[in-house]
Specification:
The complex is a heterodimer of chains A (315) and B (151). Chain A has ten helices and nine strands. Chain A is α/β, with parallel strands linked by helices. In chain A, strand 8, helix 8 and strand 9 form a beta-alpha-beta unit. Chain B is of the alpha+beta class and 151 residues long. Chain B folds into two domains: 97 residues, Aspartate carbamoyltransferase regulatory subunit, N-terminal domain (Alpha-Beta Plaits); 48 residues, SH3 type barrels. Helix content of chain B is 18%, strand content 40%. In chain B, the strands form three sheets. In chain B, strands 2-3-1-4-5 form a five-stranded antiparallel beta sheet, sandwiched between helices. In chain B, strands 6-8-9-10 form a four-stranded antiparallel beta sheet, with no helix packed on it. The chains are: A alpha/beta (315), B alpha+beta (151).
């Protein structure tokens, strides 16, 4: 059997992405089902991530699967020196699918090579986080009605922000125009700008973050500017307040503009923005549930057709 | 005259290998890689020989030695574009330019400390991106050939 693991979605074409978006939409319409009754989903969090784990476990539970796993590697044999390979092989005897988070880059790919059951990468270090990308794409698609020809503004930490890098790559076939708004120390790395050039993706770099500079945005993707990322703390003090979104900056925003944020936020979006019609970050997190229901089904060989014909829906 | 002497050295080999066109600054690194100090057979190491192709070059001749593909890959990473000649019964049995392979399995160490390959007993895999750059299969990080460490 082919290995249906999802380690990265960077290479997915438009057709596959649309397929998963359509599946996520089915789950949004009816999130509670018994499609995975009798299945066991293992969530192995070698690195803690409460948000992602709860989202995956909710997705599995709402589809009728049972969940096993651990939330903290300290309680597992990895702390006794067991290799990743051995842990994965052991859990493969019990579960039908493994959702894993690991601090080391490439861990999910390696895991997918040592087992026959599918692996879903729930984040491997600063490398990849495909379920986050999928929920970002679903949120954009749902709010804009399309992924094509959008003005996407990315704000804050564009240097270390894994989510913005993944989103950038997965949007390459949809003719986006990116605006990178970041302080000098946290600007978009050269390799991603090169990626844009090689793939004919338009981008504009700027440091100003004002009402006027974001007036043309369809999507405003905010990220956190973290103090520990700065080598020069004077620079941090200078820029820390420059990338905070306030409600009064939205007066010129386009009607359809939505604000996304991978969460958790600290202070980069002021609380008065929450009441704006443009705020979408909590719904975005909810979309993660539907996107993850789609990913779990996809790796288990359940097709969009199966989901559409599903008779196990719980109303 | 120099050229003749060199030819004589090569011709004198009954069975073994000659690595030619080694950049002069890499000669001793290659000698170390091949663990020549341990070698009990006849070994000739020459450096700063005149070369039409590269001005000056290094050369190593080892009696009774035939390289495995893995050793050849390591040589290719260390100094691309060297020439390997295999001698059998005083005749040139094979002559090949060694170039960087498209895929390298367990030859190179990843420079990224948080790459899974540096934390798990497993083989590394690298892909050739261009003649100067390798890319780790696992963490995706690209590495310049001149900074590469062998496994």
């Amino acid at each position: 059997m082919e290995n249906r693991s999802i380690v990265s979605i960077a290479d997915y074409g438009k057709e596959k992405i649309q397929y998963l978006l359509d599946m996520a939409a089915e789950f949004e319409a009816h999130p509670n089902r018994q499609l995975l009754k009798g299945k066991v989903v293992a969530t192995l969090f070698f690195e803690p991530s409460t948000r992602t784990r709860l989202s995956f476990e909710t997705a599995a539970n709402r589809l009728g699967a049972r969940v096993i796993g651990f939330t903290d590697p300290k309680v597992t044999s990895s702390s006794k020196g067991e290799t990743l390979k051995d842990t994965i092989k052991m859990v493969s005897n019990y579960a039908d699918v493994i959702v894993m988070r690991h601090k080391l880059e490439g861990a999910a790919l390696y895991a997918s090579e040592v087992t026959n059951i599918p692996i879903i990468n729930a984040g491997d270090g600063s490398n990849l986080h495909p379920s986050q990308t999928m929920l970002d794409l679903y949120s954009i698609y749902k709010t804009q009605g399309t992924l094509e020809n959008l003005n996407i503004y990315m704000v804050g930490d564009l240097k270390y922000g894994r989510t913005v890098h993944s989103l950038l790559m997965s949007m390459r076939k949809y003719n986006p125009t990116f605006h990178f708004i970041a302080p000098k120390e946290l600007e978009m790395p050269e390799e991603y700008k090169l990626y844009c050039k090689q793939n004919n993706i338009k981008y504009i770099e700027q440091q100003d973050f004002t009402e006027d500079t974001i007036a043309d945005a369809d999507i405003l993707y905010m990220t956190r500017v973290q103090r520990e990322r700065f080598t020069d703390l004077m620079e941090y003090e200078r820029v820390k307040d420059a990338y905070i979104l306030r409600a009064d900056m939205l007066s010129k925003a386009k009607e359809n503009m939505k604000i996304l944020h991978p969460l958790p936020r600290v202070n980069e979006i002021e609380y008065d923005v929450d009441d704006s019609k443009h705020a979408y970050y909590f719904e975005q997190a909810q979309n993660g549930l539907y996107a993850r229901e789609a990913l779990i089904c996809d790796v288990l060989g359940i097709t969009l057709e199966d989901v559409k014909k599903d008779t196990t829906i719980i109303k | 005259m120099e050229q003749n002497k060199e030819n004589m050295m090569v011709a004198a080999l009954e069975n073994g290998s000659v690595i030619d066109h080694i950049p002069t600054d890499k000669l001793f690194t290659v000698a170390q890689l091949l663990q020549l100090s341990e070698c009990k057979e006849e070994v000739v190491i020459a450096n700063n020989l005149r070369s039409n192709v590269m001005n000056k070059k290094g050369l190593i001749k080892i009696s009774g030695k035939f390289f495995s593909e893995s050793e050849i890959s390591k040589l290719a990473v260390l100094c691309p574009n060297i020439r390997l000649t295999v001698i059998r019964d005083y005749e040139v049995a094979e002559k090949r330019e060694i170039t960087l392979p498209e895929e390298l399995t367990n030859i190179v160490k990843c420079a990224n400390p948080v790459c899974i390959t540096n934390n798990e007993p497993m083989k590394t895999v690298f892909y050739r991106k261009d003649l100067q750059t390798l890319k780790c299969r696992y963490c995706g990080k690209e590495q310049n050939l001149k900074d590469i460490k062998l496994k």
